Amino acid sequence: MKTARRMEAIKPSATIAMNVKAKELKAEGKDVLSFAVGEPDFPTPDNVVEAAKRAMDAGETKYTAASGSNELKAAICEATQRDLGLSYEPANVLVSNGAKHSLMNVAEVIFDEGDEVVMFSPYWVTYPVQAEFVGAKPVVIETSGEDDFQPDLEQVRAAVTDRTVAILLNSPCNPTGAVYAPETIEGIAQIAVENDLTIVSDEIYKHIIYDDAQHVSPAQVSDEARAQTLIVDGVAKTYAMTGWRIGWIVGDAAFIKRAGALQGQATSNPNSIAQAATIEALGGPQESVAEMTAQFELRRNFVMERLAEIPGVTCATPRGAFYAFPNVAEHYGRELAGRKIGGSLDMAEYLLDKALISLVPGEAFGAEDYIRISFATSMEELDEGLKRLKAALA
Ligand code: PMP
Ligand code: GLU
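A: This is the predicted complex of the input protein with glutamic acid.
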């Protein structure tokens, strides 16, 4: 069957693919441990599940406004005020089917063919794919584990051309766990303001943050920066609600109106019951967020201790999110179990076949020297998985 040329840009998400592979092997009876997907292992908090049940009983099972219910938009405004100290109106909010859908809406609404978008590698797998799908060109600035994956502002300045339309930020970062320094966010915001660029700030991990790291949104930097920032967020990570599919964009009302019109022709409203549950997630008790984050931090510490014991592996300390992104390039060129390890893909395949651990090759994030380990999984699994990793690299 004929498919459109633009589909050439779409390749399957590597994070999802590795997870599916692990599940298939498990179904065959293999004792595979999966550290591939970024999905909290905790259940969705009870108060949220109860709110969904109440919504169903109350008949909140019909269409809402295509851009999301007014009640949820108001709850998102309140949460944004509480978390960032910024006041927005419901007209500044578009609720979509997960943050991934929010980001696709952004790409479709702001990019013309040939526009450039500055982003940082290691990047989340989906960013360049969405940009390319709509004909935009990702301009990638590399960051390195040696600098804790912090972007260099001079490089950002140098990357801006007259085709640049946007800068895409993700702090805390998937896959590195880097939290950008406040000065870095300020510097990027300034460059965006000077060059009239949209800042797309994916803040989906902003509540999952460790040590004394501080989340700063570019929208907090100045009124001008705020006017040019689209904040993308969602419930998936913060409230262990990956399957509920609610994400949102907060920003310029004219942009939101256009994106809402697109959504009204593409998907209509996100699930009404999930929207009702999200009101409870955002406005109800927040203790579960702190409890889950405390558990993630213990696991982060454990993973870092164990990785430090593996020769030829170095890892910048993640300050947020729930991924470790170790550099394993010293092992490239080795022959392990009769196969030559040429790069991150060979490494991930070798670890899956021989050690029965599933993780994502750095290549998928534009960073060939690394592999990504999600620690959103139990201590027992991490303990066993890291033993297997160490043995497999010995
Ligand atoms: N942004 C980042 C950086 C992510 O890791 C994810 C994970 N899925 C998303 C966006 C999308 O989240 P959602 O499940 O809400 O679509
Ligand atoms: N964002 C998660 C990850 O990076 C979930 C998978 C996906 O949506 O790609 O693993």
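The domain at 62-283 is CATH 3.40.640.10 (Aspartate Aminotransferase; domain 2). The longest strand covers residues 116-121.
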